[in-house]
Amino acid sequence: MRFVPPLLRPVLGAMLAALAIFWIATAPPAHAQGAPSLIRDTEVERVVRVYLDPLLQAAGLSPEAVRLFIVNDSSINAFVAEGQNMFIHTGLIMALDTPNELSGVLAHETGHLADGHLVRMQAGVRAASVPLILSMVIGVAAIAAGAGDAGSAILMGGQQIAQRTFLAFSRTQESAADQAGIRYLAATKQSGRGMVSVFKRFENQEILTDQRRDPFAQSHPVAGDRMSALSSLVEASPYRDIKDSPDSQYAYDMLRAKLRGYIERPEVTLRRYPTSELSKPARYARAMAYFRQPEMQKALAEMEGLLKEEPENPYFLEMYGQIKVEMGKVEEGITPYSQAVKILPDAPLLRVALGAAMLGTENPRYTEQAVKELQASIDLEGDNAFAWYELAQAYARMGQTSKAELATAERYFALYSFPQAQQFAGRALRQLPQGSTDWQRANDIISISMSQQKEQRGR
Q1: Please, which residues bridge with residue 69 across strands?
Q2: What secondary structure letter does DSSP report for 276?
Q3: What is the torsion angle, in degrees rounded to the nearest 10, for the CA atoms of residue 292, residue 297, residue 298 and residue 303?
Q4: What pLDDT score does 227 carry?
Q5: Distance from first CA to last CA of the chain, Å, rounded?
Q6: CA distances in angstroms from 290 to 96, 253, 392, 429, listed in the order given
Q7: What is the value of pTM for the model shown?
Q8: Quick check: 66 pLDDT over 90?
């Protein structure tokens, strides 16, 4: 920059800033790149998966390969990120009224995944940046030659062309995702009217000011012609009149009630679901609100009433066990947790909760069983840092120091805390039998952690 004439430096600085802003504006959402606040809950994840997995299969994707994340965010949003990851905001689930509406959004996002839009997005960014860079070169040359007004006009024009180019590319992708989503809904014998209903709602939000407009509406522009095309596809489907089954609607109503009870301020939830409302969703939501206040006896009473009607509901049993544990009656919480695990043996979060409750009793007779539950959870979901933490505590109580050190290394490895992972794996390595499976795993953690640290330093 030292060879640039002084009068041009402010212009170049402004243009470089504009270029940076353009790249930021066209990059994936910041929360997709960083670490959004996530909610882990067996019921929430399983209910959403019931709607999502058939759509993934219809798109030719493996449900096991697509990771689902529930983002604790009140905005009405959903997005996909690199590596076949799908993110659903709690605000979206709570705002929509039916499973079919949520399925419409999931189908649209599945369309983005199946068509490789994340990869193509980079091509769109490159195509849009060409006119911007050219306008910079020509505009700066014009200014240097003394044609300041003309040069500034060229610079501004290039930026506008770049933005229009990218937005056109984005609209094409959104339209393609719509069409793909309608195909997947039809393939799973579902109506597309839920998708139309959701997008219609956001189309109406375009009359709002930018300050009030929802991020989902901003990132998914819905033009009239796009809505018309989408509606035509939906009405041509033989499944357009299919309604959600009562069981599906009930599961969704319970899911929304649970999220509201957990996320909203308790006083808001209790106003939304007053004690005069005796439906199961209302009682479920109140149980969550009472739990958070905390008014444990009231929470317990609501859950006991629900369990009388559905004694084999694993999610009711899980919540009942959690309330007991929080009340300090840890041993009493083991029974409902155990029943929940028996009903859903492949639910890793339930097994973690059971193992943690067993350790929470501080009764040595539960320690070995806690290890079995925690190990079973890890076998199902190996990157659960809390499960590794609890397992390390269990091994420490049993005097198995090397296994406790290795479990701690696994915990830090799952958290991407590579220096700590390397440190504890090194400790374990010195105590483990050479050539054993655990010894080999400790070596792997050290090797991968060192590689990741070098990569991070090189960025």
Answers
A1: 87
A2: T
A3: 90
A4: 78
A5: 24
A6: 24, 19, 33, 47
A7: 0.78
A8: yes
